[in-house]
Amino acid sequence: MVKKDKSEYIIQAVSHALDLLEQFHDDIDELGVTELSKRLKLHKNNVFRLLATLESRGYIEQNRATENYRLGLKALELGQTFIKQMGLLRQSRPILERIVEECNETAYVAIFKENHIVYLDVVETSLTVRVVSRVGSRLPAYCTASGKAHLAFMSEEELDATLETQDLVQHTPTTLATVAMIKAELELIRQQGYAVDNEELDPGVRCIAAPIRDYTRRIVGAVSISGPSMRLDDARLENTLIPLILRAGEELSTRLGYPA
């Protein structure tokens, strides 16, 4: 029996749907039906049906303001799953271990998912007084260092949409619980390249985080150092921990293909 070439099994509709998704690359964030029709050389009705199908599954979403289309959260989830399984966790573990060797505070790697921060891995300090491990936890982005490291580099539109879904709870006296306060903080983070959680979620706990970028230049995670405020004072942050977390973020980004 002659074995068929795999190309003979290709389903044309699926191929067209994948072609459509692949139009969103580099700096192309949004496309309209007419432009997609030209790019794919398909009738507008066919493009619309593809878009409707992908939108129903969350892989495409429509910007109601412009009526153009962009990638949906499901596309992001697929990318994050790949990173988790193939890249980010494998590459981050030795860097987390090195962080703890140098400062003996707990180090995390986290991703942004469904407007929350999810901690994927941790290397803990050997000190008795430590922060409880948060691996697997989903925490609000606006009051965590890793979350703010993601929010700071979103587009204005993405940020507004994200903050609209957040219940801005005043967890502690230092929680930034208004949109204006959060946006002012995010502007500072963009300038300095790192984020600080100054007891904004849990009293007595401070955290610093740096973004992790991949070969597409997108932020795909954050690396952070967390510990009791009595050990993470301003002088130690400035002199030791901030330079350490910035180096860790840069090295992890480089390992994931971000151009140096």
Number of strands: 8
Domain module tally? 2
* Average pLDDT taken over every residue: 89
Q: Please work out how many helical segments DSSP would assign.
A: 8
Helices, strands, pairings?
Blueprint (H helix, E strand, L loop, with lengths): L11 H10 L11 H8 L3 H13 L3 E3 L6 E3 L1 H31 L2 E8 L2 E8 L14 E3 L4 H7 L4 H9 L14 H14 L2 E4 L6 E9 L5 E10 L5 H22 L5
Antiparallel strand pairs: 1-2, 3-4, 3-8, 4-5, 6-7, 7-8
Helix pairs in contact: 1-3, 2-3, 4-8
Structure write-up:
There is one protein chain. The relative contact order is 0.11. The radius of gyration is 21 Å and the shape is elongated. The protein starts with 11 loop residues before the first helix and ends in a 5-residue tail after the last helix. Helix 1 (12-21) crosses helix 3. A hairpin with a 6-residue loop joins strand 6 and strand 7. The chain has 260 residues and is α+β, with helices and mostly antiparallel strands. A six-stranded antiparallel β-sheet has the order 5-4-3-8-7-6. It has eight helices and eight strands. The protein folds into two domains: 6-71, Arc Repressor Mutant, subunit A, CATH 1.10.10; 75-255, 2-Layer Sandwich (Beta-Lactamase).
